[in-house]
Amino acid sequence: ELGITTPKGYDVSFHYNPEMERHHFGQTHPMKPWRLTLTKGLVTAYGMHYTMKNYTARAATYDELTSFHTSDYVDFLATVAPQPTPLDLDGTNSDLKFNLGGSDCPLFEGLYNYCSLSGGASLDAARKLCTKQSDIAIAWGGGLHHAKRSEASGFCYVNDIVIAILQLLRVHKRVLYIDIDVHHGDGVEEAFFSTDRVMTVSFHKYDPMNFFPGTGALEDNGPKSEHNPGAHHAINVPLNDGITDEQYKWLFENVISRCVEKFKPEAIVLQCGADSLAGDRLGKFNLLVQGHGSCVEYCKGLGLPMIIVGGGGYTPKNVARAWAYETAIATNNQSNVAATAEIPLHTPYRKNFEYDSVLLPSIEQILGDARQNRNTQKRLQEIIQHVTEQLRFVSA
Ligand code: ZLM
Ligand code: CA
Ligand code: ZN
Question: What is the complex's ipTM, to 2 decimals?
Fold first, then answer.
């Protein structure tokens, strides 16, 4: 063991079910549930499990799933037979029922179990916050932000985040949702379009013709119909490829501090999609584990009860690095992680880690050369300007 002492700090809980990793979307599908096993392996290798409460997440019940989703949709998810991955690779097959069975959202073996486990973990996390048994509750198996009330979308079938936020709203007046996945958090945004009790903030790559899901423009701040209390409560931060740690951290802190100041949330849900890291199979940012983690650090520093969920992340070893590092931030184990920059030898998954087996590889180690940064400082200033103007309409 590494001689880890229990650091003073927040009560942290970790909600995980090893059953999730047994599910496969298909041979070459980007979403690999075993990245959760890799994450848990690293967390354990560093001894972080001694400094938080560990819960085996249960499956969400039918009633819990239908707190957001329609029963038609959940019934179909529960009963539809698994189907082989379709050959229709462009996924433009519009006669799919509930958008299920295309190449993005295949009908694989055990799908309903997988969805319920993801939902159960995030919901357990929410309940721990509601009862004040946890200050920070972590559910890396959640974060599936594209799922709609009655439709699967972008590798997401059940929106565990919406279900968890609905639970938080039983106890907390206002919930701030923050999404650092490289994709727009459209499902969560849409679910809370008509309430002023949830503010959603998504940072994402925005290129409507070429990048999924194509929504989340700077000017999209919630439907501005006359009597919609939810207007102005959707904040979008559209970005281009190549953004660096320094820019992202600066933008994140500027945007989030303003949101917190005006909206005065009583709880935070942070979606930590790791496809915003450099070297991701789908994302093209230049973020290091440190830059991604600085968002978790900043949110923790706000001192509000917080749920941390996963999300995207398609280069499994980098996902595990980021989520282990972020677990360390939550549990105050950061110094242990930094001091042991080399991944501990006894991790059973060490063979999965390249780059000399370090936890915090440099951009050169990951990419050879950084991607060209297509974000100008001027544009980032404009974003902050627009967000500030939107927030004039928001009050606690
Ligand atoms: N084609 N296989 C992010 C969700 C992103 C829609 C274009 C599918 C893929 C992708 C699937 C093995 C989160 C789109 C893409 C080809 C229609 C997306 C199966 C490769 C594969 O090799 C693949 C046969 C597949 C899917 C790439 N799909 C890349 N990008 C997006 C969805 C989810 O990270 O935000 C949260 C978990 N879909 O661009 C198409 C339009 C389907
Ligand atoms: Ca996002
Ligand atoms: Zn994503």
Answer: 0.98
pLDDT of residue 5: 46
The overall longest dimension of the chain from CA atoms, in Å, is: 61
Catalytic one of 23, 69, 146, 184 = 184
Taking the centre of ligand 1 as the mean of its atom positions, its distance from the CA of residue 331, in whole angstroms, is 34
Is residue 346 classed exposed, middle or buried when 0-12, 13-18 and 19+ CB atoms within 10 A define those classes?
exposed
pLDDT in tens, 23-52: 999 999 999 999 999 999 999 999 999 999
- Site to probe by mutation for ligand 1, drawn from 104, 118, 319 as the one with most ligand atoms within 8 Å of Cβ, is 104
Whether residue 7 is predicted with pLDDT greater than 60 in this model: the reply is: no
Nearest bound ligand to the CA of residue 204: 2
* Cβ of 282 less than 6 Å from ligand 1: yes
Q: Which ligand does the CA of 145 lie closest to?
A: 1
Cβ atoms within 10 Å, residue 4? 17
pLDDT in tens, 313-356: 999 999 999 999 999 999 999 888 876 678 886 666 777 776 66
Catalytic, 184? Answer: yes
Cβ proximity of 165 and 145 under 8 Å: no
Q: Which atom of ligand 1 is nearest to the CA of 104?
A: 11
Q: How far is the CA of 396 from the centre of ligand 2 (A)?
A: 24
Nearest partner of 145 among 204, 95, 101, 197, judged by Cα: 204
Q: Which of 279, 347, 362 is nearest to 316 (CA)?
A: 279
| 273 Cβ below 6 A of ligand 1 | yes
Is 213 near ligand 1, meaning CB less than 6 Å away?
no
Are 236 and 184 within 8 A, CB to CB?
A: yes
H or E element, residue 78: helix 71-79
Cβ of 106 less than 6 Å from ligand 1: no
CA distance 109 to 33: 13
CB of 312 closer than 6 A to ligand 1? yes
Exposure b/e, 246-271, CB count within 10 A at least 16 = b: ebbbebbebbbebbbebbebbbbbbb
Average pLDDT over residues 300-321: 97
Shortest-distance atom of ligand 1 to CA 154:
4
Q: What angle separates helix 377-390 from helix 245-263, to the nearest 10 degrees?
A: 10
Q: Find how far residue 255's CA is from the centre of its chain.
A: 18
- Whose tokens are 């529960």? That residue is 78
CA distance 394 to 388: 10
